[in-house]
Specification:
- The complex is a heterodimer of chains A (113) and B (115).
- With 113 residues, chain A is an all-beta fold.
- Chain A is 0% helix and 48% strand.
- In chain A, a hairpin with a 6-residue loop joins β5 and β6.
- Chain B has no helices and twelve strands.
- In chain B, strands 2, 5, 6, 10, 11 and 12 form a six-stranded mixed sheet that branches.
- The N and C termini of chain B lie far apart (41 Å).
- The chains are: A mainly beta (113), B mainly beta (115).
- Chains A and B meet through β5, β9 and β10 of A and β6 and β11 of B.
Chain lengths: 113, 115
């Protein structure tokens, strides 16, 4: 099956700054997603990254805070903007191919001071 | 909306013990059900799935049966190993628009197996 890599694997950031997380899949996929896993909690879908068009955001998530790009079928970025300590989480990228289940990257562990 | 509830952890067992992690769901329609596992320092991996009522998913000695009448998908293993120590997530597929699906996860159960 395909493999997802994420960069960075972890980071410590100051409040008010922004961080861009990269997600690279080693083969073409139809769908890419971004999830957040807050400390001790479950995974929550932030948005679906659409190739060539604006991402589709879930309730409670907005583009100004979490801008997403997907320039091609193997790559996506998530930016966490104007960070606060409440944004400290693991951010996971996932992808899906037709007739297969979603598979996940290793995650990016973000700490905001 | 759709939701998944898992038994609270952490769960600690001795090697070769029997494992059950409870999972119940609330959903409209007929979602597919999944168990994902997250080993220390790694990403989520699909462990098993079931797509319709009475289906049994199985992998690596783990099993779960899709029970529509009790809206449950409990994970079981007859004899756990130290290498099974991980966090386990129950999930269901929820429909987005345009035929796409998203996963709705339970809160996760941390399992520790002692030798």
């Amino acid at each position: 099956s395909a493999v997802i890599s994420q960069k960075p694997s972890r980071d410590i950031c100051q409040r008010g700054t922004s961080l861009t997380i990269q997600c690279q899949v080693d083969s073409q996929v139809t769908m890419m997603f971004w999830y957040r896993q807050q400390p001790g909690q479950s995974l929550t879908l932030i948005a679906t990254a659409n190739q060539g068009s604006e991402a589709t955001y879930e309730s409670g998530f907005v583009i100004d805070k979490f801008p997403i790009s997907r320039p091609n079928l193997t790559f996506s970025t998530l930016t966490v903007s104007n960070m606060s300590p409440e944004d400290s989480s693991i951010y996971l990228c996932s992808a899906k191919k037709p007739r297969q289940e979603q598979f996940f990257g290793p995650g990016t562990r973000l700490t905001v001071l | 909306g759709n939701s998944v509830t898992q038994m609270e952890g952490p769960v600690t067992l001795s090697e070769e013990a029997f494992l059950t992690i409870n999972c119940t769901y609330t959903a409209t329609g007929y979602p597919s059900l999944f168990w994902y596992v997250q080993y220390p320092g790694e990403g989520l991996q699909l462990l098993l799935k079931a797509t319709k009522a009475d289906d049994k998913g199985s992998n690596k000695g783990f099993e779960a049966t899709y029970r529509k009448e009790t809206t449950s998908f409990h994970l079981e293993k007859g004899s756990v190993q130290v290498s099974d120590s991980a966090v386990y997530f129950c999930a269901l597929s929820d429909q987005l628009g345009r035929g796409a699906q998203k996963l709705v996860f339970g809160q996760g159960t941390r399992l520790t197996i002692n030798p």
